[in-house]
Amino acid sequence: MNGNGKRIGYFALGVLALLASLGLQVVMGVVGGVAFAVKEIIMSPAQEMTEELLTELFQGAVMEGAVWGVLAYHIISLPVFGLWFYFGCGRKKPQSPLKVLTGKAVGLVAVMSLGLCVFANGLVVLEEFLMPAQYALYEQLMEVAGLGVDPLTIIASVVLAPIGEELVCRGIIFHYMYQVAAGRTGKEATFWIANVLQALFFAIMHGNLIQGSYAFLLGLGLGYLRYRYDSLYPSMLAHFLINFMSTFLMGFLLSGVPENYLGAAVMLVAGGALTAVSVVWIGKGKEAQEA
User: Helices 103-130 & 209-228, crossing angle to 10 degrees?
Assistant: First the structure.
């Protein structure tokens, strides 16, 4: 197989990983919705099943099943994509987390995570005014999924998602996209091509424009960590911190920032500055290490 054929093959494998993730999410959501719909029908008092009653039962089952579906997806995705990453991406023996996550590394990752989180919140506030219809859909999806409210969804999004999604996007998809770009450009250019592609796939995984827009930007930052430290541990840690801060801290930290264009600008500038400073320091540390 020639070079172009291999690149097409690697790109197809990256797409396959994306489709596998999306397909597993759909399957778990459907299974959860059907299971809870059957439970509601069986447990409901004996009465005539009118169309209105069935609709009400179905809607309730979908919302309850979605919560369990999200949790089931993240649990099942860990062994599935963990094995795929190991056997499909070089069977590289993982480094010790303590060796990668030094005190300095943890500090820089934390600063970058805070910056990305604040920037993402500013972007969402801006989109609320620029794209009200899309924002309303985003709020509806968050309500159905129970994000930030339901304990099971919090466990899934804060604890499990940083592992599973990093395996898929910064692990499997990044690896394949790097192979797509390798050989035609320099090392840094190859990285950025791969990074943009995996971040785009990460955005598509979220299934709506509002989440997708900030997921793309977060994906770029997480991909940078994965590349600079040559490990998934820093991106997993950053992903955890971002989800944790979004769920528990941002409402408090940004309580004094108005939700208008000025507030959005303040968050974008402050978040961008924190991110830029951490990127510079991480890059300097990597260059010193290589030297």
Answer: 160
* Res 29 pLDDT > 60: yes
Q: Where does residue 263 rank: exposed (0-12), middle (13-18), buried (19+ CB within 10 A)?
A: middle
Could you read off the pLDDT of 81-122 as tens digits, one per residue?
999 999 999 888 878 898 999 999 999 999 999 999 999 999
CA quadruple 271, 261, 157, 207: dihedral sign: negative
CA separation (Å) from 48 to 34, 38, 41, 45? 20, 16, 11, 9
Average pLDDT over residues 247-261: 89
Six-digit token string for 194: 């791969």
- Domain positions in the chain are 3-290
User: Looking at residue 35, what is its pLDDT?
Assistant: 73
* Residue 253 token pair: 């930290």
Q: What is the rounded CA–CA span in Å between residue 68 and residue 280?
A: 41
Q: Which amino acid is at 61?
A: A
Under 8 Å CB-to-CB from 247, ≥6 apart: which residues? 147, 148, 154, 157, 158
- Long-range contact pairs involving 213-220 (C-beta distance under 8 Å, separation at least 24): 213/123, 213/127, 214/120, 214/123, 214/124, 217/116, 217/119, 217/120, 217/123, 218/116, 218/120, 218/242, 219/169, 219/195, 220/195, 220/196
pLDDT confidence tier of residue 4, bands split at 50, 70 and 90:
confident
